[in-house]
Every structure is written in structure tokens, then in C-alpha cells.
Amino acid sequence: MPERRRRNGYFPPRFWRTFFFALYIMLLRTRLIFTMTHGPLFSRAFGSLTSNPRKRFTTLFVTISIIFFIVFISSGDLSIPREDKMEQSVAEMQTHLQFLDSLYRARLEDLLTLQNKVLSSRCFNESHHHQPTSYSDTVTVTLTPELMTSLKNLSGTKTAQGVQPKNLQLFRTPFVFQLLPHLMNDPNSLRPSYHMKSGRVFVDVVIGVPTVKRDKESYLLITLTHLVNGLTEDDVNSTLIVVFVGETDLEYVVNTARQIEITFPKQVENGLIEVLSPSTSYYPDFDTLEKTLGDSMKRVKWRTKQNLDAIYLMSYAQTKGTFYLMLEDDVIAKKFYMQEIKQFTASTTVSTPNWFFIEYCQVGGIGKLFRSSDLIHFVTYVQLFYNNMPIDWLLESYLADRVCSIDKTAKACSKSKSTIRPKYKTSLFQHIGLYSSLKGKIQKVKDAHFGSVPTYYPHTNPPLESMKTDIVEQGDHTLKRAYEGQTYFWGIKPKKGDMIEFWFEKPTAIKSFTFRSSNVDHATDKFYDTVVEVLPAGTNNFTIVGSFDEFGLADGELKKDAGPFSAIRLRVQSDSFYWVILSEIEIMTHDGTKETR
């Protein structure tokens, strides 16, 4: 029976519901496009058209014909498609129309703002230049005859004044400037400082790739190579990759854009890739941020900036395409990833129409696909809590706020969240970055395409007269071999007062130092509560010049006139529960830059 109904051209109830929704949105889309291009002229014409019954019927008939034509063409042939294929096509069309509807609402908001400005100006002029001829001239709201009579009888009272224009000022929506007040310090705070535009609009998928300077190595070009190579010819024409450079150093931004243009000249020329960077005034004074979650100020600054970068990119991308794919600048992509995304998204929209985002990778904020029309809600949510927690935590919090009531258990809440967060069967994206965008943080990620992740980082360091440590060495992971770049140092549970000392062969002017503890195999084996000290030549007292942070990194720079120094050492200030690894020792001098082995 079901097969016969399909062959006879049966359309499921879901189709008809979507059809009438599409009909409504198609009218909105038509008005949006012509309003943007023809302005008031179209508004008058549209009003005339819809006021004429015969013209209105003709317009309705043409619109219905267009929708049926789109449905049949999108099915791949002119025969009645299978029900599941039809539902996917209709769901895809509905998502496109929701995107257009969001653009229409944004345009309408601009028009309403302009209308209110004109209205306020007119009311101001009337109140200052002439006396209104009747009571109805003094109000901007619709009054029934009975209410007008009642208000006339109340003339001169506070009650009657409640409908007068001077008391009906437009409320301001507590949006961007109210939630991010630092933006009001500069009228150009939301204007990009750099934008290598592509000119593309109305694409299927916008891929957002935020990037910043990294501590050691940049993976951006690797990421873009995989993203570009994973697209079919059709995908290239319906995709936009936006690289967001979250740096205020314009020279660095321009250099990054130039590297992209040199590496991907065809993709930049045809509009597949564009580069965007915010104004310096877009960011707040990070030193004034409030500490939350017990994190260090260093981490608070990092995650706050990451949130601001994410919503800037989302806000820009939401008007460019139907879907937004959230990525990072240190990932690789599966071949033909976009085809898999489109197919799974289409089927999921039929089976789970109320999804908020689809996970194509379960690591952090990587591989999350949103409807562009839904982004405004999440962007506003992040603006409320951008200083409170990282972006991936905010995603979880937002989902919980949408579907979890206060009385739900954690298990029930997790189940509810899964209903609006479908997951693809495999990850289409793999994280490859060893060095996090947060300086000092090492991320344990191994990938077969790029070989094994190193456990130590050798450097050529100044010659020593001697070195010593109180920490018991483990096997052949000695301090001497670590300093010479042959392995990492591995010691057993440092105690308070333990030291690692490096005595130079001759007094040395240190330019910078880097001591990195732990590695990808032993993330907890790092220095805790440990300082870096130097001994100026000809003196007997060491001076503290740095300390290990929460990620086990100690680095710093020293002025030339501060040295030379006879020694540099690490001093443990409290007992440790863990062993310790020193995976990188780099001491650079003012005599010349030392090269990595």
C-alpha cells in the first residue's frame, strides 16, 4: 500500500505543512529582495499589487507554481520521487527559506529603526512648532472612539499624558552595545580593520576558521589545504571559507592574508576564501576581566578572547549562507567531507527537524554545524556569558537551558540534549595541533597523516661548565642528555628546595629562556610552584625572573643590560605529587639566535 501511494503521487502530511510554510516564506523572500534593490518604489508597488484581488490571485498562482517547480527540479527528475527523497528536498528548501526569512527580519529591523527615527523627529517638530488640531494628532497609538472620548474627559491628568508621544520613547534593545559596553568607546569598534572580501552571498555552507598567533607552529595552511581539497566542484561554488584573524597587529594580519593568497590564488580569486580581522577596539581591556571558574588570569583572557572571536565570526557569517560550520585552524578534513555533511544534514532535518547543531566532530568546538538563522540566539547568549566559561562549555550550557528543566536529573538532561544535537557516525575532522592557541598549553593529539607527536624539543644551547640537580633522574632521561637535545629529563617527585642548575662556561648575556615541562604522554608530569632564577656575574644572590604557569611552561625575556649571568636555575618551592618531565630547554643569548636541531 505505501508503495502504491507513492507511485500515485501521494504527498505526506509533512510535505503539505512545509509547502504552506514555504509559500509564506517565498512571499517574504520576494519582498526582501525587491525591497533591498528597489526600496520605497517596490513597497508602493507591492502594496498596490496585494490590494488588487485579481493581481493578488495571479501572484499567488505564480508563487505556487514556482514552489512546485523547485520541488520537482530538486528531486533530480520530473517523476514523483520517493517519499524520503521528497521530504529531504522539502526540508532543505525549508532551511533555505528560514535563512532568507532571517535576512528579511534583519532588513525589516533596519526599516523599523529608520521609521521610528522619522516618527520621533516628526513628533518633536510638531510639539515645538505648532499646536495639534485635535487630540488624536498628539498620539502615535491607535485609539478607539470610546477611548478618545474618555481621554478627552481626563485632559490635563497624568493618565491622559500616558499616550502622548513625548512619553512613548522607543525602548532600546539591550543588545551588542549594552552587553559589550566597551564597544561604545569607539564608533568603529564593529568595523573590520582588514577584510579581503570574496563577494559571495547566499551560499549553502559558510566555514568559519578563526586563527591567532601560536606559541610555536601555525597549522592554518594545512587546515585550508584539507578544506579546499575535500570539496567537489559543485561544493566549491556553494561554499565560503572565512578565515578570521583574531589579532590586532595589522602587519601580521596582512602577512597572513598574503600567505593565503599565494598558497591558494585560484580560491581567493573565485571567492571561495576570504580573510577578516576585527578592529583593535573590538576587544575590551583584558586586564580588567573578572576571574571565574578558579582559572588563572592567563586562561581567563584566552577563553574570553576566544568567545569574542567566535561570535564576531558567527555574526558576519550568518548573512552569507544557509548553514555555518564551526572549525578551528588546526584540523584536517576527511575527503568529500562536504558531501557527507550535506547528505546527513538533509536526512537529519527530516528525522529531527528541531536540531540546534549537528556534530561532525566531538572535540571541543570543532565540526559543529548550525543553521544560520539560529546563530543570533547563540551569539546573544555568548554575549551574556563571554567572560564566564569557554565556548564549548557555553554550547553545553545553551543546550541545557533550552531543553532541561530544573527538576531534570543529569541523565535525563543529557538525553534531552541529544535530541537537539545529532551526531554523525564518524568524525569528519581530526584535530592535529600540538600547540594550543593558549601559549604554553600542549594538546595530546596523534594523527597518522602527520606522524607521531614528539615528546621533547631539542635546541642548541650555550656551553656549560657544569649542571646539577637534586631531583632523582629516571633511567637514561638525564639532565645532561636533555640539555644536549638527546631526550627529555625525567625526575622522581620533586621536593621543596630541589633545584636544577645550569652554570655557564663563561658569563652569558641571556636574551630569552624557555623551560617546558610535561609532554603529550605524561601531561601531569610538570613543574608545580617552581620559579626560574638567574645569578648575575660577580654576585652571590640569585634573582627570580619567571615561574612555571598552570600548563608547566616558564618563559621570558631579559634585557641585555641586565646581564651577563653566571648561571640559571629552577627552584621547587613545594613538594610535588607527580614525577616531572622537562621536555624543552632553550636558552637564547644576545650574541645570536640559537637554532633548533
Automatic annotation (TrEMBL):
The chain crosses the membrane at residues 15-36, 57-76. One of its GO terms (biological process) is protein N-linked glycosylation. InterPro entries: Glyco_transf_54, MGAT4, MGAT4_A/B/C_C. GO terms for cellular component: endoplasmic reticulum; endoplasmic reticulum-Golgi intermediate compartment; Golgi stack. The keyword Transferase applies. Keywords: Glycosyltransferase, Membrane, Transferase, Transmembrane, Transmembrane helix. Residues 466-584 form the MGAT4 A/B/C C-terminal domain. Pathway: Protein modification; protein glycosylation. PANTHER family: ALPHA-1,3-MANNOSYL-GLYCOPROTEIN 4-BETA-N-ACETYLGLUCOSAMINYLTRANSFERASE A, ISOFORM A (PTHR12062:SF9), N-ACETYLGLUCOSAMINYLTRANSFERASE VI (PTHR12062). This is Alpha-1,3-mannosyl-glycoprotein 4-beta-N-acetylglucosaminyltransferase A-like isoform X1. It comes from Papilio xuthus. The gene is LOC106126139.
